[in-house]
Design a protein that fits this description.
Elements (H helix, E strand, L loop, with lengths): L6 H8 L1 H55 L2 H4 L2 H24 L4 H15 L2 H12 L3 H32 L2 H20 L15 H17 L1 H31 L3 H22 L10 H18 L5 H29 L2 H63 L4 H8 L2 H4 L3 H10 L1 E5 L4 E3 L7 E7 L2 E5 L2 E6 L4 E2 L1 H6 L6 E4 L3 E7 H10 L1 H14 L5
Antiparallel strand pairs: 1-8, 2-7, 3-6, 3-8, 4-5, 4-7
Helix pairs in contact: 1-7, 2-5, 2-6, 2-7, 2-8, 2-10, 2-14, 4-5, 4-6, 4-8, 6-20, 7-11, 7-20, 9-10, 9-14, 10-11, 10-13, 10-14, 11-13, 12-13, 12-14, 13-17, 15-17, 19-20
Length: about 550
Amino acid sequence: MAARPFLPFVDVARSPDLRRAELALLGFGMAEWATWIAMLIFAFHRGGAAATGLVALIQLAPSAVVAPFASSVGDRFRRQNVMVATYLVQSVLMGGTAAALLAKAPVAVVYALAAAVATSITLTRPTQAALVATIAKTVEELVAANVTAGTIQNVSVLVGPVVAGLLLAVSSPGIVFAVMAAVLLGSAALVLRIRGPEGVVGKRTVGARETVRHALGGFRNLGTRSSPRILVGLLSAQSIIWGALDVLLVVLAIDLLSMGQAGVGFLNSALGAGGLVGSLVTVALVGRRRLTPALFGGMLLWGLPLAAVSLLPHRAAAVILIAAAGAGRAVIDVAGRTLLQRIVPNHLLSRVFGVLEGLYMASLAVGSITAPALIAWLGVRGAFVVAGLLLPAVGLLLLGRLRRIDASAVVPERELDLLGSIPMFAALPAPIIEPLAINLVPVSAKAGASIIREGERGDRFYVIDQGRVEVRRGSAPVAVRGPGEFFGEIALLRDVPRTADVVALTDVAMYTLDRETFIEAVTGHSAGIAAADTVIEGRLPPEG
């Protein structure tokens, strides 16, 4: 049992394709964070805190526009090719930035290249998720790959700044970009060696007009419903603090603590280490009925240690306090996103999160440009106090509303249990199943009633709560299904007419999911795809 937490990593290591994809992602994450730190330090030495905030804004503003639409790329082209091209483009752009830095090119050229690097980075994570979904051979591999990818992202926040700090201690920002360009060449080479099935090609073609329409659906939902708007605003607000912290940590390390440019990397690593610990703690939030206490507690843990940095401006204390703030940020992120998942209709969820990703980038930019103004007005210590107290103050103002949102978002336990027993959903974590449970619609049928007719168009997926039904193909009985079992998935997932009749043997109480919600849930999360295929193959009659 002691080795059980490591099973996902063992499963990934055993699969050559998954191993290559995840190692490539590790290289990407390290390069993303190392070059970000290096560029902030370059800007600080050229123009102090104001220049640091400006370069962060220049990098983040284009990303904020691109992020809501980036997720469609993996559906329009061959995913392996997209990943290779993405890593190569990032490598070339980082190499160009390195050359510009080492050649002492005009600052405008350096900043423009840095913005191009940051924009290209938004393409990686959505396509990575789609690629892994097609190269994993079993549900277990898919789940293992997702767990590994999540761990890699947290580790990257820790390792990337450490690597940057070590390189900066003996070299310059230009060298950091050059090394990371080589790392990304390695990532491209790893993905190029993937020998997955034909399924590595995107499943459907999505045009530019459809991509825009799809993304605007998230904006429309937020415009008409206040509860998700409050949560998205709150998550964006905590990103403003993180953006400000990018600048504040540079000034803290170099000016206040005299740690040099390497110290910037180490302080950011402390933030990442705290986030990693916090993400492990948030496992306890899965399935919890009330999330507001954790959400508000995360705000306090994120903000108060930052305010305390101004009172204890010593190296050891700063590292501990910043690590605690990182843990708080992780709790806010998980609790806030889980609560958002509970109140947004499932068919709009990816779009709302796409909007959140764009606002997240924009909020980082706002924070990074606001921090220099705070420093100029209040000094470094005063800026830390304002940054630290802002989120707890907002949390106090919204606490009553958050409690009401929390109370309205309680997940029906019976529905959650039913979905959790279905193979297509069993491998997914509770925060993904919960929105589906909320969308279940109760229906009933009297004994002898026809529920599904062979040959008709499929519009719903059924889960039996009470009673029994008989599945008939032609006039021959095929199977009897009872409580906890399901039917109706084949026509929806294969886009074919109903393949059998389903008749109620007794009075039946059921729950249904509409076609769009069901399809997006199963095909939109990698851990459900392989399980759905296995179920369908077992239920369809043999060919010939």
